[in-house]
Amino acid sequence: MAPRKNESYTFPHPMDNDTLVGHVSILRTFMDAWNKREEHPIHPVWILSGTRGIGKATLAYHIAKMVHGCVGDFFIIDMERNIDKDSRPKPDGKVISVYTVRKMIEKMQMSSMSGGWRVILIDSVDELNPSASNAMLKLLEEPPAKTIFLLVVHQLSNVLPTVRSRARVEKMTPLSISELRELCVKFLPEEDISTDMLKLSNGSFGKIANLKKSGGDEIYSELIEMLENPKSNSADMMSAAKKIAVTPELYGILLDAISHFGLADLYTEAANNISDINRIYLEPEIAIFKIINDIKKCL
After folding, report:
1. Dist CA 158 CA 65 (whole Å)
2. What gap in Å lies between CA 80 and CA 280, rounded to an integer?
3. Is 263 a domain residue?
4. What confidence tens digit (pLDDT) does each residue in 229-277 have?
């Protein structure tokens, strides 16, 4: 049976989210540099790096909005604006195409006569395919005048070293428990979010939001209860595996379960197996069952 999804949860797109919790120091650092740009040239390329769901894109849009009064044009590269070689929308892809980047460059070149500042926001660099990354690198080798690049990055190792060397890297930290609670009060006011759930999120409100929308919080609770039950058997483990298998976004709760039980020796192998599920296994529940079974054997 699939996890029960709750479609009633709606969370604003980072562009529309006026609530920025945490990361004040990075926002202040940028605004100080921006406000002193006439005295000291502002760095043209800013990387906002950190784990998913901590507010990197929200911060990027806040920065763009705060300088918008001095900005002539605002360009966005993300999966929603992804296109194919014929310029047809391709928002359901797994990577951002080179055609999307080339289209943005073309529009930017057409706007260069305005003389105003421009902001280019990429969410995220991790999703650029190799050709798109190389096209962006060529642009960054000699950044256009009066242009600010805001690059959202989930995993810094996914960024070409030559891009990192041309950027100011701001490493964003996970949100604190109190910051997560503040966001839960704002966006999940009717939910009783336990301290265990907040800890499980590892500082990512995005993870809490995804678990609530997918019903993953219930699946995780059932998984832990089953693993702790000395009477649970292979059928119970397969039932749990099937529930998790239908929603790839839930695969990470297997690692959360390993951490919950303090089974550090299982973590790396399980993480590798999870990353291979979509690439190798035609029936992901088999791989997930194996991970659950390995956890059970250690308890």
Report:
1. 27
2. 28
3. yes
4. 999 999 999 999 999 998 888 898 999 999 989 999 999 999 989 888 8
